[in-house]
Predict the structure.
Amino acid sequence: MFCPVCKAEYRQGFTRCADCDVELVAELPSTAIAIIEPDHAGDPEEDPFCSFWKGDDPRIHAELCELLGNEGIPYKTFRRADTLFNISAKTSFEIGIPYSQFEKAEAVVKEAYEIGDEMESRDGKDNPALPEAVDPPK
């Protein structure tokens, strides 16, 4: 049994939708059933996260997270904190994004900070590196 309005499914024996207060139907019309494509963004099996940015500046970290969030790009952030007995040479912040979203995220950051394609490559390849520190646009 299904509600023709909200498409909720009910067990046998129910006759009215508890939310919409309409009569239930035995089957929904095929046009009422929407096929939802799964979103694999961030799914480790389909779209693993990769490192997008590493740095020590909390302001840049916050700005990048805000940019990614505004564009709907899923991200995870990892913060390392040194302690007296565990001093690390690694950066304080790291942002990871789904691999499939890397180019989109890179374009968003370049546009926001007005960075051109003339940036030097971090690893000698064609992949431009994000700067360690950037000044916000004026």
The first strand starts at residue 49 and ends at 55. The CA atoms of residues 80 and 129 lie 21 Å apart.
